Amino acid sequence: MTFSSRHTLLLCFLLGLMHFSVSAQTPMAEAVRSADIMPSLPGCEPKMIDPCSQAKLEEFISQNIRIPEAAKTQGAGGLVMVEFVIEKNGKIGEVNTLHDPGYGLGGEAIRVIKLMNEKKMVWSPAREKGKKVAYRYITPVPFNLSAPPKEMPKKVAETEKSTEPKIYDVVDVMPTYEGCVQNATDTIDCTFMKMLKHIQSNLKYPEEALSLRAEGPVVVDFVIDSSGHVVNPVVKKGMGHGCDEEAIRVVSLMPVWTPGVLEGKHVAVRMTLPILFQIPKEKN
User: Fold this and answer.
1) Which residues form the signal peptide (predicted)?
2) For residue 268, which of 175, 144, 149 has the smallest C-alpha distance?
3) Do residues 234 and 222 lie in contact, with contact meaning Cβ atoms separated by under 8 Å?
4) What gap in Å lies between CA 206 and CA 4, rounded to an integer?
5) What are the φ and ψ backbone dihedral angles of 107, each rounded to 5 degrees?
6) With 0-12 CB in 10 A as exposed, 13-18 as middle and 19+ as buried, what is 125?
């Protein structure tokens, strides 16, 4: 083997190592859900609970989000729940959706989260016992659109008319949690944050899940009926060990909402809420 060929092979090997170091990501399942110090964005103080970083993340999302054409055509909006890894170097790793209403919204939410790497928006990584760790972060990505174009009602025979009230996914004015201002252009941040506070105040970790150290999200669908009551909670993505039943219990405890509005009338609207079961720090 000549010197030049050996040199070429060595160079290729080194480039391969460089590529591996750049592209290697921590698998979502190996990233932690809790740490002594939460990840934080520049300008925010690293600490266990970090509303500063969440506010900066929401601002970044709102400035860079684009409504997919399919969603525009259908007038489809809603909430995408995104889970992503903040690597030890502060960059964004694997990104997944926990809840995706479709129409390209999930893909757009993933694009915006990954955009942080392109924009060189580097986090201060999470720390556990003084060491940097890869962290699993969950955030809502809201898409607020008007309701779909109105269709002319079809004439049906009296016997064919359904007695069940229709349940909508998107309406002119979406339901809002107790105490939140309701209007057609407002964001859903108030409602989402109040739901989070409700969960934090009422959630009880099932003993079976705690003994097995089971952690993860339970996604619940429920309906806000035309009178604002929470009805028909159903687990769409469960994890067992008593967590599914606890998620249903906590959702059922929510107070009466301001119901959704379509064409000037209160209507039933389907909502989706992921509830994260995460072992409290003192239990670890």
Assistant:
1) 1-24
2) 175
3) yes
4) 65
5) -65, -40
6) buried
> Are the C-beta atoms of residues 81 and 98 closer than 8 Å to each other?
yes
Domains of the chain and CATH, by start: 27-143 (3.30.2420.10), 166-283 (3.30.2420.10)
Is residue 91 scored above 80 in pLDDT? yes
User: Amino acid identity of 162?
Assistant: S
CA atoms within 13 A on the CB side of 134: 17
d(CA 55, CA 225): 31
Which phi and psi (to 5°) does residue 128 adopt?
-130, 120
pTM of this prediction?
A: 0.56
| Spatial CA neighbour of 48 closest among 30, 34, 32, 28 | 34
Q: Tens of pLDDT along 178-193?
A: 888 766 555 456 787 7
240-259 pLDDT tens trace: 899 999 999 999 999 999 99
Question: Residue 186 and residue 188: Cα distance in Å, rounded?
Answer: 7
Query: What is the predicted pLDDT for the residue at 263?
Result: 87
Which structure tokens are listed for 219? 């996604």
CA distance readout (Å), 191 to 91, 180, 266, 275, 281: 29, 6, 18, 15, 27
106: Cβ contacts below 8 Å, ≥ 6 apart? 80, 97, 100
Q: Which residue has the higher pLDDT, 92 or 217?
A: 92
